[in-house]
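Newbie here. three chains, one complex. Structure please?
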Amino acid sequence: MTAFRRDLAIGVVLVAIAAAVPFLFPVRYVITQMTLLFIYAIVVTQWNLVLGVAGIFSLAQMALFACGAYATAMLGLYLDWSLWAAMPAGAVIAVVAGLLVGLACLRLKGPYVALLTLALAQVAYLVIITDTDCFIRTETRCEPFTGGASGLRRFGDLGLREWLGRDWIIGNYFVGLGLLVAAMTFSVAVVKGPLGLAFRALRDNLGYARSRGISQFKYQLVVFALSAFFTGLAGAFYAAHFKSVGPTIFSFSLLLLLLAMIVVGGLGTIWGPIVGATLVMFADEGLREVQDFRTLGLGLTLALFVLLLPDGLTGTASRLLARWRGSGS
Amino acid sequence: MSDPLLSVCQVFAGYTGRDVLRDISLDVHEGAFVSVIGPNGHGKSTLLKCISGLLRTGGGSIRFSGDDVTGLAAPAMAARGLVHVPQGDMLFADMTVQENLMMGAYLTSDRAVIRRRLDEVHAILPRLADRRQQLARTLSGGERRMVAIGRGLMAGGRLTMFDEPSLGLAPVIIDQIYDVMTRLRESGRTIVLVEENAMRAARQSDRMYLLDNGAMAWQGNGEEFLARPEVIRSYLGG
Amino acid sequence: MEVIVQVIASGLTLGAMYAVAAVGLALVYGALGMLNIAHGAILTFGGYAAFYVITSLGLPMVAGVAAAVVVGALLGLAIYVVLVHGMLSAPAFETNIFIATFGIGMALENVVLKLFGAYPAAQPLAFDGAVAVFDVFIPVRNIVILVAGILLMVATAWLLTRTQTGNAIRATAQNRAAAELMGVRVRWIYAQVLAISGALAGVSGIMVSSLTNLSPTMGGDPMLKAFIVCVVAGLGNVYGAMIAAIALGLVESTAQYLLGVRFGLATLLVLVILTLIWRPHGLFGRTQVQRL
C-alpha cells in the first residue's frame, strides 16, 4: 500500500467516524465541543505547515484567525453581509494580513520572527481591548468599532436554523467538518507536493536551497498566505458558529492549547496535528474537574513532550513502527 | 626509553557513521616535536579533535601522562595540560587581544605565573604587545594566527598541538610562524604540529606521521622522510 | 519644559526597568542561543517573593530584595537542570526550548495564581513621596528604579568584563568550542548564566510591581518589551540591550504623551519593524556570512 493510499484510507475512516458522531451522541454539548475541535484542528494543521513544514517560527497564527473572525463579524454587523459571503471575504482579509506579516518577517531569522509575530499579535490584542470610542450607539449603550473588551455580537449566523430547525447545530457541525477536510487535503497536498519539497529544503539547509534557486522570499510569502486562508476561514466559521467574537481568542492560554496540540501530535507530521488536537481536547474535557490547574497541566505537558518526545506521538509511533519492521524482516 | 607523554592507540573516529580515522596509533614523548602530515581532508584535524576531547572517538584508547583519558571532554583535557590551537584560530572575536590571551590562562589562578607567561608570549610574538587593546575581529589574518598561538602558549600546557598554523597566510608571515615554531622547539616544549606542507615540517620534526585517507601510511623521523622522495611523491603529489 | 521633564523622567524609569529585564534575556540568548519565554514568569515570582517575605513574614525590605534574587536565580537554575541540560545536544534546540519555556512559563504563572490569587496586590517594597525637578514632581519610586537599574547595569558590566566567570561567559557566547579548549566547563557556565538572568528577572519583578501592582500576569508586558529591546539591539547583545532599553523607554513615554497610552506599544512596534527591515540583525547586530 502506498503512503498516499494509506493516508487516504485513514482520512476516509476518520471522516466516517466524525460523520457518525452527531447521530450516535445527539447531545448538544458533544456536538458543540466537536465543532470547536474541528475549528482548532484547522488552525493547527495550518500552523503546522508554517511551523513544522516550512520551519518559520510564526506565533501570529491566532492573530490571523482573529482577522478572519473579526472581519466576518464586522462585515455582517456593519454592512449587513450574509455570513456565507462574509466568511470567504474574512479569509481573504486574513490572507492579506498574512502577506503583510510575511513581508515584515521576510529578512528575519527564526527567533526574530517568533518575537515579532508574538508582539504583532499582542499589539492587535491591546488595540482591541483598549477600544472604547463609540462607533455605533444603541438605545442602551455604545459599541466601539472593534467591540472592545467585550467583543462583537448580533451579526447574524449561517441561517441553518430556518432550514434545519433545531438541528441547525448539526448543520454547523458538518460545515466545520467540511472545512477541516478541505484544510487537511490542502495541507497534505502542500506536504507531499513540490511546494513541500521546497519548504523542506529551505528549512534543512537555507543556504544550499537558495543557491539552487529556491527563493526564500517567494516561498515564505506563499506559506504565510496559503496557511492564512484556511486559518482565516476557521476564524470566520468560529464567529459564525458561536455568533460572537471577542479578544479572548488572542489569549496566551489558547495559544498554549494549540501549540500543545501540535507538539503532542508531532510537529511537521501529516496526522500529528489532528491526533494532537483530538487528544488534547479530550484530555482537557476529562480534566474539567480540576480546571484550576488546566494551564499548569497544559504547560507541563508541553514542556515534557518537547523534552522527552520531541517528535510527538505520531512521529515517535512511526519511528517505532519503522524499527519494528526493520527488526522483523 | 621512558613512557610517552601522549599515546594514541588504535583510534577510530567519524562523523555520523562514516569513518574519518581508522586504526590510528601515535606516540609523543616529552620534549619531542612530532608532526602529522598528509593531504587536506584526510583526518588530521579530526585526530587532533579526538585527542583534545572536542570529538568522541569511536574505539581505541588515548593515554596522557600515564592516565587513560579516553572519552574525556575538552575542558578536562585542558585541565590536564593538553593544549589544542585549532584550525581557523577560533578566536573570541569581540574580545581584545589581551583578553584572548588571558582566556588562554583560564585555568591558571597564580597571577605571577600568568604575568611571566604573558611576558614570554610578548617576547616570542612582539606584535601582540602592540595590539593589546585591539578587538580580535579587527586583526589581520597573520595577527589572528599569532593571537591563537599566543593564547595556546598562555595555558602553559605540557603538550601543545598546532593545527596547520601556516594555513592561508602570506609566505612572509608563514616564515614568521615557522620561526616561532623553531623557538618553541628550542625551548624544549612538547609539540604536535599538523601540517600540509611536509617539507617545512620535516626540517623541524623528531618524528613524522603521514596520514592518508584516514589511516597511518608511514612514520619515521624527519631525515628519513627527506631521504625518501617516493613517499612525498606518492602521497603528497611531489 | 515641564512636559519634557515629565516625559524624560518617565521614559528613563521605563527604560531602566526594561533594561534590567532585557539584559537577562540577552545574556541567555548570547550564551545559549535560547529565548527564555519563562522569563516573564520568573519576574512575577520575584515580585511575589518580595511581597511574601515583607508582608506575610514581616521581614525588612532588604530581605525582600534578597528573596526575589534567590527565587529568581533558583528558577533560572531549575530551567537549566530540568530542560536545557537534556535538550542542548538534541536537534532543533532553538525551537524546542522556546516551546518548552513557553509551557513552563504558563505553568509557573498558574502556580502564582493558585498561591496568591488573581486579585492585584500592592508591592510593599516601594517608596512614597516625590522630588521636585525643574518644578516637576517626580515620584521617589521612579528615581529609586532608575538608580537601581543603573547600579544593576554597572554591576552586570563589571561581572562580564572584570571577573573570571564573566570572561568565561563572554568567551562561551563568542566561540563555544574554543572556550572548551581553554578549559571552560561550558555547561556549568550555562547554568550560571540562567541563574544570573533569573536573579535579574527577580529584581525587575520588584521594579515592575512597585510602579503598577502585583498580579499573576504582570510578567507578560515587561517581557514583551524586553524582547522588543533585545530584537532592536540584536539578540544576545548585552550592551546593545542596555542602550536600546533606555531608548525604547524614552520613545514609549513620548509616544504615550503624544498619541495616548493606547498606541504607545503600537508605535513602538512599528518602529521595531522598520528597524528590522532596515537592519535584520538589530541595530548593533552583525550580519553573519553563511558558509555552505
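Moderator note: The longest strand of chain C covers residues 130-133. Residues 2-278 of chain C form a domain with the ABC transporter involved in vitamin B12 uptake, BtuC fold (CATH 1.10.3470). Thread marked as resolved.
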